[in-house]
């Protein structure tokens, strides 16, 4: 708990903190190409890992990787569509 005398000071500090956080968004992050690139890379890695798991007959690993690949592809569709 704070003493009542410090409450106005805390409000001023909170207001100053929120005002300093207001910054213009970086245009690099607004570009959907930058956001989707890591997902595409993850998709490629998962495809490779899935092929390796299937070749080694690691059924449980393959099932998990298929589920992960489906999840990544759904995220890619969400960005594109």
TrEMBL record:
One Pfam family recorded for the sequence: Rbsn
The Rabenosyn Rab binding domain, residue ranges: 38-78
UniProt-listed InterPro entries: Rbsn_Rab-bd (IPR021565), Rbsn_Rab-bd_sf (IPR036531)
Name this protein carries in UniProt: Rabenosyn Rab binding domain-containing protein
Record organism: Thanatephorus cucumeris (strain AG1-IB / isolate 7/3/14)
